[in-house]
Amino acid sequence: MPDCLFCRIAAGAIPADIVHADDEFVAFRDISPRAPVHVLVIPRRHIPSPADLADVEADLAGRLLVTAARVAREAGLDAAGYRWVLNCGPDGGQTVPHLHLHVLGGRALGWPPG
Ligand code: AMP
Ligand code: ZN
Q: What number of CA atoms fall less than 13 Å from residue 38's CA on the CB side?
């Protein structure tokens, strides 16, 4: 999707602080971090939102989680813990219409979300 910000980051057309990249996923630091560690994990494939996972093979969703767990481990978050967030649509607070999993950690995180 040429007009999609995260497709452009995945393609290398827009710079990002990339912490992981493979054939299927890219992980990069959020430009406006909400925690000491704040990384976004995205599929290279343009999937607009978590709702669209209903139309995607389950293996991709599983590999997204495995990749996010590796990103968290490599960021040193395993011992203290961390949070994954998938915002979906307007009420979920999604602002970029390309599926992305937030990995947040490095401090104690409040619950429930506001
Ligand atoms: P969401 O609100 O769940 O859609 O999350 C989108 C995230 O993308 C926000 O946390 C933004 O700070 C982040 N973001 C927006 N533009 C960029 C960018 N160019 N590089 C890295 N992160 C970005
Ligand atoms: Zn996209």
A: 10
